[in-house]
UniProtKB/TrEMBL annotation:
Pfam families: Bet_v_1
GO biological process: abscisic acid-activated signaling pathway; alkaloid metabolic process; defense response
InterPro entries: Bet_v_I/MLP (IPR000916), Plant_def-hormone_signal (IPR050279), START-like_dom_sf (IPR023393)
The protein, known as: Bet v I/Major latex protein domain-containing protein
GO molecular function, one term: abscisic acid binding
Length: 158
């Protein structure tokens, strides 16, 4: 079975500014520092932030979902401002998912505004259908909200 969930949040910064955070490894450093109640550790295990980079995400015990997994950067489009990662080891793959993809897309709205669209696409084996309840954009929504506050505080003066 295939599914998709999305979350959108308007940012009060230009799309290029938001992409500097979401389109690079900065987002990994950001979530590890700003979300210690969710992320115990975010480790770079392979690469430098380019296509093929692998991160290991370890969650604080008690967070719904798998305790950890590795994700790989499978798409980085700097022109369209889209970055996709897929779980490649552990985590959701051990829970019956055959695909668990997260996409961040920064959409230009105006000169000083943009939208961060977060999407999870997944495929799940029928005999693990109950695990579909583990799919949620809540953590992505939290990341977007914290990023919005951070970007607003740190935006370059006009």
């Amino acid at each position: 079975m295939f599914g998709k969930v999305e979350h959108e949040l308007e940012l009060e910064v230009a799309a290029n500014e938001a992409w500097k955070l979401f389109g690079t490894l900065e987002i990994a450093k950001f979530v590890e520092k700003e979300m210690p109640q969710i992320f115990q550790k975010v480790e770079l295990t392979e690469g430098d932030g380019a296509l093929g980079t692998v991160l290991k995400l370890t969650f604080v015990p008690g967070i719904p979902g798998p305790p950890s997994y590795k994700e790989k950067f499978t798409k980085i489009d700097n022109e369209k401002r889209i970055k996709e990662t897929e779980v490649v080891e552990g985590g959701y793959l051990e829970l019956g998912f055959t695909l668990f993809r997260v996409r961040f897309e920064v959409i230009e709205k105006g000169e000083d505004s943009s939208i961060i669209k977060s999407t999870i696409e997944y495929e799940l084996k029928e005999d693990h259908a109950a695990n579909e309840s583990l799919v949620s954009t809540q953590i992505l929504a939290n990341i977007a909200e914290l990023a919005k506050n951070y970007l607003n505080k740190n935006k370059a003066p006009k």
